[in-house]
Amino acid sequence: MRVLVLLAALLCGLPSLAANRCDTAVPTAMAEVGEVRLAYQSVGRVADPTLLLVMGIGGQLIDWPDEVVQALCAQGFRVIRFDNRDAGLSTWVGQAPSANLTYQALRYRLGLEVSAPYGLRDMAGDALGLMDRLGIQRFHVLGASMGGMIAQHLADLAPQRVSSLTLVMTSSGAQGLPAPSPALLALLTRREADSRAQAIEQQADLLAALGSPAVADDRRELLAQARSAYDRAFNPEGVQRQLLAILAEPSRVALLERLQVPTLVVHGTADPLLPVMHGVHVAAHIKGSQLRLIPGLAHRFQAAFKAPLLGAVLPYLAAHRHPVGLATL
């Protein structure tokens, strides 16, 4: 087999082999994890250290840009991206939530208890269960937005298994941090679409609102992205349940302060959903963490910011790819 690989390298060139190794057009597999079934993709060599990507509210694994996944894989990682419960092709938990979101959001603002069908720690348990099913003992975690909140719990649940933590555009959930505008929250929770076309327009509106004011979005690209997401899976009730899970979460400051995992926090200065102080607050409460602020970055993976995002994340991951004294499987 080694001879065949060497011959292929000579005939096709090593860059071609690297490109094939990091091909994102891999089949989506399914894993039974406790009470849920998770859809996931594995990109890269099984023998390489694993990097688990955890997506934000309502997001699907396809919302991780292919070129970002390829860049992470090219660093020598096996990259796994998956659909959280209540998103994409993974298990949709149940009926539409009976709780009124506006009322529950008000209770959250007042510091009162919020009811939810499941919590972020349950979602972290899903991610850990996926690693168990795949036989992966140690792994790196990169979480964005709600995915960063889930990643915080994951590192707390299994600190001996998480080699490094990268938290992008996320929050500690502490009271008193700047809140998003009511208009943006309305866009996030608006799901009363009468048709596919209307739902796609609404999603494009949300994507535009989450983008940087310094970047002029191409409406056709936003619509194409919204169309791909809708046609793969459209689950507005799942978004509401995930939002309830966030609102029901108490402050994670105590959790952050006990973390011992090497951590990088990346946040944009123009984030309209989780303003920049959310990222600063997270980094301030994780001992030894690094903070990288990206000027103009908002709350989306826009093309104009992929280079600075990768410029912040790739060197950090490369430095922690093989933890000293630990075997990454």
Automatic annotation (TrEMBL):
Q: Which GO terms describe its molecular function?
A: hydrolase activity
Q: Which UniProt keywords apply?
A: Hydrolase, Signal
Has UniProt tagged this entry with the keyword Signal? yes
- Where in the numbering of this chain does the AB hydrolase-1 domain appear? 49-299
The record ties this protein, via Pfam families, to: Abhydrolase_1
Question: Which Gene3D superfamilies does the UniProt record give?
Answer: alpha/beta hydrolase (3.40.50.1820)
Instruction: Tell me where the signal peptide lies.
Output: 1-18
Q: Does the keyword Signal apply?
A: yes
From the record, what ranges are coiled-coil?
A: none
Q: Could you name the domain of life of the organism this protein comes from?
A: Bacteria
Output this protein's name.
Alpha/beta hydrolase
Please tell me the species this chain comes from.
Answer: Zestomonas insulae
